[in-house]
Amino acid sequence: MIISRAVLHVPAVAVSASLLVVVLVFAPLASASAWQAQPPRASRPTLIAPPPGVQFQQTVQQQQTRDQLQNSQLQQQLHQHVADTAKRPSANNPQLQQQLDQADRDQRDRDRASQQAQLQRAEDAARLPQPQPATASSSHRGS
User: Fold this and answer.
1) CA 46 to CA 15: how far, in whole Å?
2) Which residues make Cβ contacts (< 8 Å) with residue 65, sequence separation at least 6?
3) Count of CB atoms within 10 A of residue 17's CB?
4) What confidence score (pLDDT) does residue 131 get?
5) What distance in Å separates the CA atoms of residue 115 and residue 122, rounded to the nearest whole number?
6) What is the pLDDT of residue 92?
7) Max CA separation in the chain (angstroms)
8) Buried b (16+ CB within 10 A) or exposed e, 27-51
9) N or C, where is the chain less crowded by C-beta within 10 Å?
10) CB distance 79 to 107 below 8 Å
11) Residue 122 exposed, middle or buried by CB count within 10 Å (0-12, 13-18, 19+)
């Protein structure tokens, strides 16, 4: 028994043309769906610079804090120098030396706590909302 099948001969040009049509029809659709499938870009937050008056006030506050900390450090150095000078005559007395060392440690702890409190106050002040100047229309509401 012989099974024959019909072979359809299609010219290669016709296959190429129909393939080209299919590609031209579906290529834009594929690229459009690929474009839509991409996750949206995260938008960057827009930083708004404070008004010049607020910037100036912040700069002044930062400089005052730096100056106060520097002054505090100079006072600590002076105190340490005085303490070192006071220790010289008692170098042979271990009990007095221990008392002076403990007093130095206590003073350094107090100085450190004072500086940290000063920095915390400056940071807290920087976090507070700045008062906004009243507009002319809002000042006449009660009239």
Assistant:
1) 55
2) 118, 119, 122
3) 11
4) 61
5) 11
6) 82
7) 127
8) eeeeeeeeeeeeeeeeeeeeeeeee
9) N
10) yes
11) middle
Q: What is the pLDDT of residues 93-123, one digit of tens each?
A: 888 888 888 988 998 899 899 889 988 888 8
The three-state (H, E, C) secondary structure of the chain, written as one string: CCCCCCCCCCCHHHHHHHHHHHHHHHHHHHHHHHHHHCCCCCCCCCCCCCCHHHHHHHHHHHHHHHHHHHHHHHHHHHHHHHHHHHHHHHCCCHHHHHHHHHHHHHHHHHHHHHHHHHHHHHHHHHHCCCCCCCCHHHHCCCC
- Tokens in use for 114? 């004072």
Token output for 83: 């303490």
Q: Is 65:73 a contact under the CB 8 Å cutoff? A: no
Tell me, what amino acid is at 103?
A
